[in-house]
Amino acid sequence: MARRAQGTAAGLSRERIAAVGVDLVDRHGLDKFGVRRLAEELGVDPMSIYHHIKGKAALLDAVSEAVLTEVVVPAGAEGADGRDWEELARRTAHSYRDMAHRHRRVFPLLTTRPQTSPVALAALERLVASMRAAELPEQVVADTQLTLFGFLNGYLLAVLSGSGDDGVHLPVLDPGCYPTMTALLPLQTGFGSVAEFDRILDTVLAGIKDRAARGTTP
Amino acid sequence: MARRAQGTAAGLSRERIAAVGVDLVDRHGLDKFGVRRLAEELGVDPMSIYHHIKGKAALLDAVSEAVLTEVVVPAGAEGADGRDWEELARRTAHSYRDMAHRHRRVFPLLTTRPQTSPVALAALERLVASMRAAELPEQVVADTQLTLFGFLNGYLLAVLSGSGDDGVHLPVLDPGCYPTMTALLPLQTGFGSVAEFDRILDTVLAGIKDRAARGTTP
DNA sequence: CCTCCATTCCTACGGTGTAGGTTTCGTTCC
DNA sequence: GGAACGAAACCTACACCGTAGGAATGGAGG
């Protein structure tokens, strides 16, 4: 295990560290992720990482920021006049879902850390601007950030943590104690599917539209 | 630091361990929480805990289960005929929110671990039964679990992790880069407030009702 | 009184994050 | 060209963590 001589460049950078970190978490999970494993993967001494990232918390920030950059919605999705906020919201949500499924072990990080990276704020600004251009009530627009991403984070967290590497395993219910839920079980076959996601996303967007309609004509 | 002699009863039990665990996490946060600190607080050797709880993962399960039992909705909230599912949903959501605010540092645990404890299932069964009694479309009822608790978990996670002990601190925005969001900032003063919660809960419920209406008359 | 067993404590091991100091290389300036 | 400097890497060491394995002890049942 011959390491590089001191002083020689290892080509470390915040971006490369984060990228390898994402890959490591994807493969082995958050529990097994640490400075030492990451350093080994990078072919580097553990402490070298600290010259680019301040501590483990900052390291996790970098990792979560890295996966967030994968969320991209092509320009022009909101239509020519920039007013089709609903289409934009749908595309953004789907792109977010895709990212979450690509990186299920990383995803929990996003839901806890306040997202202040430019890439996250830019996406939000775009959506919010589109809604405002469509002249939705301001309070509805202001609440959308929490409504939509609150739902996305909570829903995806539930779906992704309920599924292991071997697939989904729903809990077994006692039909005597929980008759209604047992009866509804057949309707939950598509747990985590795109169809399910679309249904629920639809519900949330319908709620926003409804409140917008009530808000403009009180 | 004289410990108890071996063999003498320390009055340990899963419930007491969990209760003290909740208190400890509330005060010092999840990071500082561990078997050793918990044992010290209980006046007990760390390894004694393992005779009642199998490992750290199970310990966290016990802690999260303990806070979940605090969510109670008085009987009869759904009305005499048991069909006022909306009122029941509102009360359940508020009780859940109250619990989350009482135990902000514990709350993240609930969003990751699959909730299969009887107390959680019972609350869900009750809500779902009420919706079914009101003859909502079955698929809507089946989806409600993920819709409502997805939203609750994601929203509360965002609100609670964005606020430290000193109160809320929203990120500072560059008005040049994010003009719309900056303009909307004044409307976000009640971040984490009950009023905000009610507005967004309203939105989600409106979405469910809307989809129910569309579902029954396609 | 003796046996048994659940409960508790003790020791020890491999792992972690990271503070502090040392070494080396590439650059910059005379 | 040679010396001085700062960035980037490495090394050592420490306190702490989860937990495996085993020894001790007191109370319960015969």
Automatic annotation (TrEMBL), chains A, B:
Q: Name one Pfam family in it.
A: TetR_C_1
Concerning InterPro entries, the annotation shows: Homeodomain-like_sf, HTH-type_TetR-like_transc_reg, HTH_TetR, Repressor_TetR_C, Tet_transcr_reg_TetR, Tet_transcr_reg_TetR-rel_C_sf
DNA-binding region location: 34-53
Residue stretches in coiled coil: none
Keyword Thylakoid assigned: no
What PROSITE patterns does the record tag this protein with? HTH_TETR_2 (PS50977)
Please state every residue range assigned to the domain named HTH tetR-type. Answer: 11-71
* Key words, A-Z: DNA-binding, Repressor, Transcription, Transcription regulation
Q: What protein does this entry describe?
A: TetR/AcrR family transcriptional regulator C-terminal domain-containing protein
Q: Which organism is it from?
A: Streptomyces endophyticus
